[in-house]
Amino acid sequence: MREPTMRISARNQLKGTIVEVTKGATTAHVRIDIGGSIVTASVTNAAVDDLGLEVGQPAYAVIKASDVMVAVD
Amino acid sequence: MREPTMRISARNQLKGTIVEVTKGATTAHVRIDIGGSIVTASVTNAAVDDLGLEVGQPAYAVIKASDVMVAVD
Amino acid sequence: MREPTMRISARNQLKGTIVEVTKGATTAHVRIDIGGSIVTASVTNAAVDDLGLEVGQPAYAVIKASDVMVAVD
Amino acid sequence: MREPTMRISARNQLKGTIVEVTKGATTAHVRIDIGGSIVTASVTNAAVDDLGLEVGQPAYAVIKASDVMVAVD
Amino acid sequence: MREPTMRISARNQLKGTIVEVTKGATTAHVRIDIGGSIVTASVTNAAVDDLGLEVGQPAYAVIKASDVMVAVD
Amino acid sequence: MREPTMRISARNQLKGTIVEVTKGATTAHVRIDIGGSIVTASVTNAAVDDLGLEVGQPAYAVIKASDVMVAVD
């Protein structure tokens, strides 16, 4: 299945470059460099295959606002 | 209740500065500037009060890896 | 901000039609008819405005696999 | 442990039939056919065992409203 | 709609007593005492109405394992 | 990377003792005894290593209010 192209309600769509893709048994970890900060995403192996995710590729880290916490020192 | 100080398993702890705090009836939106990218967090009003969150304050956007998706153009 | 058009890792992208949009103080509820089943999404008011969500519009309910539970009778 | 029988606050309880169960090292993927749409759930292997989830079994995909995003073409 | 009675894959089903229900514009906060610890749930107002949630009522806090983080001092 | 010490907006910070740590290919399960109730967390293997999580160690189960559901019998 090729994923449709869409605009999405998730408030956070941070543009960067994929710097690491690690597949596990069913779950993969994808790391994206967002202007110097590294964001780690835990996604299905199937998603990695369907989107053809590879190191060096431009990509967005997409995060729903209700999944973001705030912390202070 | 004062929140305890702790180190947390969440893989994503992005340091920035709070640029907006908007309280609703029960849910508040906090926006954090992370090196030029704005991250929006939807948290309880109670959390805003307990942590004393204010515009201009240094803060982290904390996100569990399993809550991050990856998108490509 | 206009949201970029993208393909996303979320495994569940269910196509349907928006049947209800209810805005609260900061959080809106959007209901989508997916072939007879109604799916309720809780999103920010800002997302409703940015995407121009309206009753009658075709839309996808997008859900990360790690956010889906399984239940049996 | 046998899970208790309960009614739950999650707004989305979509009834269907399990069409695939794939176990990984710790995480399993369960696919449910909801009136023609396939919903993928990522759950623990332990949940698959405790609920006795099998292909062909009727089941619900249960999703909290705050975990549903909305997308448009 | 009366919610169906079901057994669910969520690994965490903590039994307690409801000690507070606060409704907002669209989102309600429900606090449950679990053997002395208070757990706060943010759910839709509609869920509060459909389940008839009230202070003093026995209830479970239900949490998917992938939504639990671990922290240390 | 050593995780910074912080106070966090997540409403639920339940103190207990780690009773089990099981690593998978990429995802680990950590079980924490909270005054007699066991809470299961699904986190990355990397988080287990970085925080040095071990059986017998005091730890918090941290859960965002928007990830808690309420169920009744």
Describe the protein's topology.
Six copies of one chain form a homohexamer.
Chain A: E1 7-8, E2 12-23, E3 27-34, E4 37-44, H1 45-51, E5 58-63, E6 69-72
Antiparallel strand pairs in A: 2-3, 2-5, 3-4
Count of helices of chain A? 1
Number of strands of chain A: 6
Show the largest interface.
A-B, 41 and 41 residues
Fraction of residues in helix of chain A = under 10%
Pfam families (chains A, B, C, D, E, F): TOBE
Keywords (chains A, B, C, D, E, F): Molybdenum
Protein name (chains A, B, C, D, E, F): Molybdopterin-binding protein
Domain Mop (chains A, B, C, D, E, F): 7-72
Describe the 3D structure.
Six copies of one chain form a homohexamer. The first copy, chain A, is mainly β and about 70 residues long. Chain A is built from one helix and six strands, in the order ββββαββ. Chain A is about 10% helix and about 55% strand. The first copy, chain A, has a four-stranded antiparallel sheet with strand order 4-3-2-5. The longest helix of chain A is centred in the middle third of the chain and has 7 residues, at about 45-50. Chain A is globular. Chain A starts with 6 loop residues before the first strand and ends with a strand. The mean pLDDT of chain A is about 95. The interface between E and F is large, with 41 and 41 residues. Strand 1 (about 5-10) of chain D pairs antiparallel with strand 6 of chain F, so a sheet runs across the interface.
